[in-house]
Amino acid sequence: MDESYASDTSDFTPIMSKAKRLGAEVITGGGYINDEITKAAKSVGYSPRLMMWAIGASDPNFRRELGEDADYVGATRTGRCSSRPLATRSS
Length: 91
Known about the structure:
Layout: H1 13-22, E1 26-29, H2 34-43, E2 50-53, H3 60-66, E3 73-75, E4 80-81
Parallel strand pairs: 1-2, 2-3
Antiparallel strand pairs: 3-4
Helix pairs in contact: 1-2
């Protein structure tokens, strides 16, 4: 899946719903709006194995704003990645 979106996009639930439906295991992207993409994934019950953002997730406000929803979301700018899953996964 290769999706793009307009710079003024505010609702990412259609993209995250599609990723969930297709079974995408990794979501990557860039920019500072990744908190909205992460929130959209959570809102549709989608928990990929990894979400990796180029910049946004390295900002301390990302974790403050998202709390546990920021778990397992990393940023390539700092190489940080949380140690808990975005959502609990059943086997």
